[in-house]
Amino acid sequence: ETGVTQTPRHLVMGMTNKKSLKCEQHLGHNAMYWYKQSAKKPLELMFVYSLEERVENNSVPSRFSPECPNSSHLFLHLHTLQPEDSALYLCASSQDISSNEKLFFGSGTQLSVL
Amino acid sequence: TQLLEQSPQFLSIQEGENLTVYCNSSSVFSSLQWYRQEPGEGPVLLVTVVTGGEVKKLKRLTFQFGDARKDSSLHITAAQPGDTGLYLCAGEWDTGNQFYFGTGTSLTVIP
Predict the structure, then answer these.
(1) pLDDT tens-digit profile of B35-89?
(2) Which residues of chain A neighbour B4 with C-beta distances below 8 Å?
(3) Looking at the complex, does the CB of residue A90 fall below 8 Å from at least one CB of chain B?
């Protein structure tokens, strides 16, 4: 496999469930990102990891919990979500977090919270 | 929060027509990127522009960065159905290394 792979592609969960989104990159990149894409809204950067350390947390509610066990894997743990959290969650990677970096995106997980 | 406006929001044209979409900000970008996102997929980078007045061409796509580095345009010549998708611009300001995305222009090219 090449590129950035996200699983699952689709997820439906209730507000009391706990689930996790998984992202894996096979590009040898040092930086990984979680973005949220909602209808009629710009992509929102949620978290940034560089060399497995979190370097950015854009005021994301604590019901979203990221984990980066190594430079190739990134998780987003979800618990007690709200219906307004329904969106496409995109993972991306880049060689580093310096300026002008090219982002490589996965296909996303389409999340529906009931 | 920096604001990036894209226009038009939606565009539906016939195959073979030309079109231009725009990305504007009130602030100066240090660099700007254009992405295309097809349904069910993540965005794919098309181009990065960094110099005011810069013009880059990618086959039938022409990207222009404004002289003042506050705006950019994407022009497609002789659009094809394969050009259908959501076109996103993402700007980086000198305040940090984070790219902020616009809401996108959804393009449909009708055969």
Answers:
(1) 999 988 999 999 999 999 999 999 999 999 999 999 999 999 999 999 999 999 9
(2) 42
(3) yes
